[in-house]
Amino acid sequence: MKEIQKEIELHYIDYGNQDGKPILFLHGWGQNIQMMKPLGDAFAKEYRVIIFDLPGFGESEEPNKVWTLYDYVDCIHDFVVSHQIEKPILLGHSFGGKISLLYASKYEVEKVIVCGSPYRKEIQKPSMKTKILKTLKKVPGLNSFADMAKKHVGSTDYRNASPRMREILVEHVNLDITEEVKKIKASTLIIWGDKDEAVPLECAYELEKYIADAGVVLFPGCTHYAYLENLKKTINVVRIFIES
Hints:
Layout: E1 2-5, E2 8-16, E3 22-26, H1 37-41, E4 48-53, H2 69-82, E5 89-93, H3 95-106, E6 111-115, H4 128-138, H5 143-152, H6 163-174, H7 178-181, E7 187-193, H8 201-210, E8 214-219, H9 226-229, H10 231-243
Parallel strand pairs: 3-4, 3-5, 5-6, 6-7, 7-8
Antiparallel strand pairs: 1-2, 2-4
Helix pairs in contact: 2-3, 4-5
């Protein structure tokens, strides 16, 4: 589905139990709906699942100016308000996790789950896409995810992005939201791979310290894409967290 939010066309899918609590899934940089759908599908029986192509990715329109993360937050909030959603659960990976943290610092949410989410200035290594694909191919049963990642991971990274999206990426990488993170009141689950080379493991424990009600779940041997590399475990820990 597509509709206008914050003056741009936003593409999303909305499925599952329409009477259930809504979970909003926000993907990482250079990705799209398909990278979050394996996780969203696991919750469709009990919950309303909403997965976005964030502006500038997938089938969503590119912002008409250089957006900050606050603009992305406002876009998601416009959607929440227009769909009369109260206190959604947010689940974000990487870039989407940073948006989720910033959103939760400004607006009321039920719970927050972030996976490998940056919150201070970090520089990702240019070889990360290759490392991710190699890791996914080694994990039993994840060959299909590796093929999907080849198409979607890093497809709009700095080199391939439009000039405007490059500027947005620079804004994102340089934005430190430490003080905003400290304002989060919602219970927060922090999922991290101990082999994450995109966002250091120390960031997970810093977030745990800054957020009043937060806990870290560490996935040994997993990278920045820990939520996919150990999908079954991710589903289990997220379900326990949101049902507790």
